[in-house]
Specification:
The complex is a heterotrimer of chains A (355), B (310) and C (357). Chain A is 68% helix and 3% strand. A two-stranded antiparallel ribbon of chain A has the order 1-2. Chain A is mainly alpha-helical and 355 residues long. Chain B is mostly helical and 310 residues long. Chain B has a single domain, classed as Orthogonal Bundle (ABC transporter involved in vitamin B12 uptake, BtuC), CATH 1.10.3470. Chain B is built from 13 helices and no strands. The chains are: A mainly alpha (355), B mainly alpha (310), C alpha/beta (357).
């Protein structure tokens, strides 16, 4: 007896919905097994990891706070990923957006203009876009692989942040510590719920999801990009410009990552330091995939990944497990998803003998 | 003092470049078979932590390197099953592997953090190590450095002078034709991926056993990604992987030596640190710009899933 | 009868409350490991717990990244019932201040920072004192008159360390010069090793670090026989990693501070003033002398240490000249704590310029 994969005549819509559910389920099971192997009660582990973070309003607000930059980055990335434009440098674009927005805030420390915050959002988007334009240009002009160029630029962006907070932008009253001044109140995003940290960026994120949905499903350019991604030759014959696809894919990703960067420095951090991103740009890639590159999916997967982060902190605090457990769960989730995805396009057939 | 300094710089460059060569050659073989495995960073991390754990408990460094090799191979199997058998996107699987691998290594390595090993002893080659300047720089190195050179020769010979190597390259160029002739494409790709994983594991082992004899979360610090970049940099030619690795290693070292000399520099330290990455981008651009060169050398089916019997 | 029962209940209830151990929280920036900055804090914590046996329990969260997430962890400790929370890294300053404002009944203590409030105090160690003494040993024993310093970031704490080491070294060897390599990280073993090798290649035979891994001293140990190089550890005694080549080190002992502070809060004396303790308070020590350190050097350094404790010698006593020649401390005077906390220049004897940025 022999099992073989047989391609389906068309992708199974049922499996496209079930597959993420399978993946999450497998991740939960593996997680509980992991807790057991580590000598902790699987039930306690499950409770502390998944339920503790949301047991009160503050917890829920923290979850939304953490999910916001993930949502923003992921929807931007998914526009590109759908079109086979692999923007791996979202982390760098996030940082550049933060720098651009922070630069505006620092330049106008006493402004009371209502345009300050919107200006910062715009600056963040432009900063991220500018950084993403580099790999886009290198790809369209020189055929340089955007995976590697965008990734190298992440390291450069981190060094740029380091240089600025140690040097030109260092707070003169900050005892020479590597940080900028705290942003004034008008340059901070308004908090939505008193006592929590979740701020207006959440609305921007949801708006981005909505716009993203419209773009992907109702616009011609979105359609062109989807075709370019799934059937490159067909796209070329139809006259869809691959250059435009690459530029769009990179710039949209860069812009949204830049806004996410702005939301972090104009939000919970309130200044620029060397620690403004705990790897959001990379986590957003997982959010995008697990969310099936669709805005609705991304909404849920960003909440899930935020839960994995906060849950990891909780088990670190209460069960003494290393914080890297979050990454382990994230990686497992993605692998399980990629694995169960096979059933969308293929089914298993039993063969009587080898063919 | 001047010549002595040159020896130091060469010595440090060779050390810095060695893990890049080993991992890079492994990735090159994988890519020659048409598979793009972006999970190098994850495989190196797991190889490193496994090697460290074994070395810490057994004090047998040979065994530790084997442990690194084995665990890198096992990690690559995760990728292989997902990308080759389950036909998921190779890019996504590679990303998943790199994130998962780094996290898993940090996780497993927690109890080992800040524990320390005695660094492995260098193995001087008898006559050659007496050559002035070049001797101490190249021939008083760790055993794995010599291994990296031997690996280069072996991979070059395998790919361009042996039948199995020819088959592997055929699989990378035209998998459908290769399949029609009767070669087991998926199986060959599995082997190529496993070789890449094994080498990444050895490179990780080198880091913890001979370069900086301790384990800490994140110590691979991007070297896995740089190894992948090196393969493109090298236009998939083995010797160029070595050249690129030493260039890159040299870049990383140079800024330290410049600082240590006390030369008055008005360039921010961060700019110097950024040079290796900017240099990589520049070279990538120069290499890729020549489209015919890229097309000539890059495996035609790189990154595309192979669907048998479709 | 009812009154008696009520009284009994009240008394036993109060006794129970009085006896319930108080929770004290600790937030660490890196894993505890077995050497380094966080390890020393943890040693201090354990000592405090032992000294106040039964009266306190501690809750530790390690490897907490500086940044927005730290606020959540600190807050979680507070809502979990900790009455005192020690946050041990500079990057926790703003998160600690924010949570302190939200929890006025909890006492917060932040290390190596500068913000304080009604329920938040700072604490720090005069690491530079140990550096000065290490520098004296280096000056006495160097053969090349060159020392090497592996630095993390050019912030005041590290600049103070470099300058103090240089001043100490030149107090006995006026020809000495100190070369600095910046690795831009508190913990990057690969870079720290490369930095050490590059300093050795410049002829430095006395190496020290203001970074957190053991790689620097391990590299020196490796090269010790061939190059006759020696090292000084930082934070912890790292002689187990460099048994033949570690001459001494600059060690921080947080135990007295932790015990004293927790006791004061338990006794209702409040959070106390911002603390900056040094050798005379037992917070700073130097590691035991290597067997290679000759007797006369030991007695000389012991004398300087005693003078420091008595206040007769200060690491930054005049004349102190910056690299460019300006007089920072005139002869006969001593640098003020405020000026110390803002040092951003090299003193004469340090080679190279402070990185721009």
């Amino acid at each position: 007896m022999w099992l073989k994969f047989e391609q389906r005549t068309e992708p199974s819509p049922l499996m496209s919905y079930l597959s993420p559910a399978f993946a999450v389920g497998l991740m939960l099971l593996s997680g509980m097994a992991l807790f057991f192997v580590l000598g902790r009660s699987p039930i306690a582990g499950f409770r502390i990891f998944f339920l503790n973070p949301v047991k009160d309003l503050y917890g829920v607000s923290e979850l939304l706070l953490k999910a916001t930059p993930l949502m923003l980055c992921a929807v931007g990335l998914s526009v590109g990923f759908r079109a086979n434009v692999w923007n791996i440098g979202a982390e760098g674009q996030f940082l550049m957006g933060a720098l651009a927005a922070g630069g505006v805030a620092l330049h106008f420390p006493n402004s009371t203009s209502p345009f300050l915050l919107p200006g910062m959002v715009l600056a963040g988007a432009l900063g991220g876009m500018a950084w993403a334009a580099i790999p886009a240009w290198l790809r369209t002009r020189f055929n340089a692989n955007e995976i590697l160029t965008s990734l190298m630029l992440v390291y450069v962006a981190q060094l740029a942040v380091s240089w600025l907070v140690h040097g030109p932008w260092k707070d003169p009253e900050g005892f020479n510590f590597p940080q900028t001044q705290m942003f004034q109140a008008k340059a901070l995003l308004p908090v939505l719920v008193e006592g929590s940290r979740v701020n207006a960026a959440l609305f921007i994120a949801i708006a981005a999801l909505a716009i993203g949905w419209v773009f992907m499903n109702r616009s011609f350019l979105g359609y062109q990009m989807k075709v370019a991604g799934q059937a490159e030759n067909a796209g070329r014959y139809a006259g869809f410009s691959s250059k435009r696809t690459i530029w769009m894919g990179m710039l949209v990703g860069g812009a949204l990552a830049g806004i996410a960067g702005m939301s972090e420095v104009a939000g919970p951090v309130g200044q620029i330091t060397e620690h403004i991103s705990p790897g959001y740009g990379f986590a957003a890639m997982i959010v995008a995939f697990v969310g099936r590159l669709t805005p609705i999916g991304i909404f849920f997967s960003s909440l899930l990944l935020a839960l994995l982060y906060v849950g990891g902190e909780q088990v670190q605090q209460y069960l003494g497990l290393p914080s890297a457990i979050s990454n382990v769960f994230q990686g497992m989730l993605l692998f399980f998803l990629l694995a169960s995805d096979v059933f969308i396009n293929f089914r298993l057939r039993r063969m009587a003998r080898r063919q | 003092m001047g010549l002595d300094l040159l020896t130091y710089i060469l010595f440090a460059t060779v050390m810095a470049g060695t893990p890049l060569i080993i991992a890079g050659l492994g990735e090159l073989v994988t890519e020659k078979a048409g598979v793009l495995n972006l999970g190098c960073e994850g495989m190196m991390s797991v190889g490193a932590v496994a090697a460290f754990a074994v070395a810490y408990s057994t004090h047998n460094y040979f065994l530790a390197v084997i442990a690194g090799l084995g665990s890198g191979m096992v990690m690559s199997l995760l990728f292989a099953v997902a990308a080759l058998t389950l036909m998921a996107s190779q890019v996504a699987c590679g990303l998943a592997l790199s994130i998962f691998g780094v996290g898993l290594a940090a996780f497993i390595g927690k109890p080992l953090e800040s524990m320390s090993l005695v660094a492995g002893k260098p193995v001087p080659i008898p006559l050659l190590s007496r050559i002035p300047i070049l001797g101490p720089a190249f021939f008083q190195q760790q055993a794995l450095v010599y291994f990296s050179w031997a690996l280069l020769a072996a991979v070059a010979w395998f790919l361009y002078r042996s039948k199995p190597g020819l088959v592997l390259r055929a699989v990378g160029e035209a998998p459908v034709s290769a399949h029609a002739i009767g070669y087991r494409v998926v199986r060959i790709r599995y082997l190529a991926v496993m070789f890449g994983g094994a080498m990444a594991g050895v490179a990780g082992a080198f880091m913890v056993l001979f370069y900086t004899p301790l384990w800490v979360e994140g110590m691979i610090a991007g070297r896995g990604w740089i190894s992948i970049a090196l393969v493109v940099f090298s236009t998939w030619r083995p010797v160029r992987v070595l050249v690129g690795a030493y260039l890159f290693g040299g870049c990383m070292i140079a800024q330290m030596f410049v600082q240590a000399s006390g030369v008055q520099l008005n360039i921010p330290a961060q700019f110097l640190s950024a040079l290796p990455y900017l240099a990589t981008i520049l070279v990538l651009v120069l290499i890729s710009h020549n489209r015919s060169s890229i097309r000539l050398n890059s495996p035609a089916s790189l990154g595309q899933p192979f669907l048998p019997d479709v | 009868m009812a009154m008696r029962n009520l009284a009994l209940m009240l008394v036993s209830g109060t006794l129970l409350l009085a006896q319930a151990p108080v929770k004290v929280g600790f937030v660490y920036v890196s894993p505890i490991g077995d050497a380094g900055y966080t390890y020393q804090h943890d040693l201090g914590r354990k000592a405090m717990e032992a000294a106040l046996k039964g009266k306190v329990t501690t809750q530790v969260v390690e490897n907490v990244e500086e940044g927005a997430d730290a606020e959540r962890v600190i807050r979680s400790l507070a809502t979990d019932g900790c009455k005192m929370i020690f946050t041990t890294s500079f990057g926790y300053m703003n998160p600690t201040a924010k949570v302190a404002a939200a929890f006025p009944n909890v006492s917060f203590f932040h290390a190596t920072g500068y913000k304080s409030s009604k329920n938040m105090a700072t604490y720090n160690g005069r690491f530079y004192e140990g550096r000065y003494l290490n520098g004296v040993i280096a000056g006495k024993m160097t053969k090349t008159h060159i020392a090497g310093f592996v630095g993390a970031f050019p912030i005041p704490e590290v600049m103070m360390a470099i300058d103090a080491f240089t001043l100490g070294m030149r107090s006995v060897d006026p020809k000495a010069e100190v070369h600095v390599v910046w690795v831009n990280s508190w913990f990057d073993p690969g870079k720290e090793r490369e930095a050490t090798m590059s300093l050795i290649s410049q002829g430095a035979d006395m190496i020290t670090q203001h970074t957190d891994s053991t790689v620097v001293v391990q590299t020196v140990e490796e090269q010790h026989k061939a190059k006759n190089v020696w090292c000084f550890s930082y934070n912890s005694d790292m002689s187990k990693y460099a048994p033949t080549s570690q001459l001494s080190g600059d060690i921080t002992d947080w135990s007295h501070y932790y015990t004293r502070t927790v006791e004061n809060v338990l006794a209702g004396k409040g959070i106390g003033p911002n603390t900056w303790d040094g050798i005379k308070d037992g917070m700073i020590k130097i590691a035991p002398y290597n067997v290679a350190v000759p007797k006369d050097v030991r007695s000389y350094v012991d004398k300087v240490m005693a003078d420091m404790k008595a206040g007769k010698v200060h690491a930054f006593q005049g004349p102190v000249l910056a690299q460019d020649g300006t007089v920072k401390v005139p002869k006969g005077k001593v640098m003020s704590d405020n000026d110390l906390g803002a040092i951003n220049y090299y003193v004469q004897g340090v080679v190279g310029n402070v990185p721009k940025g």
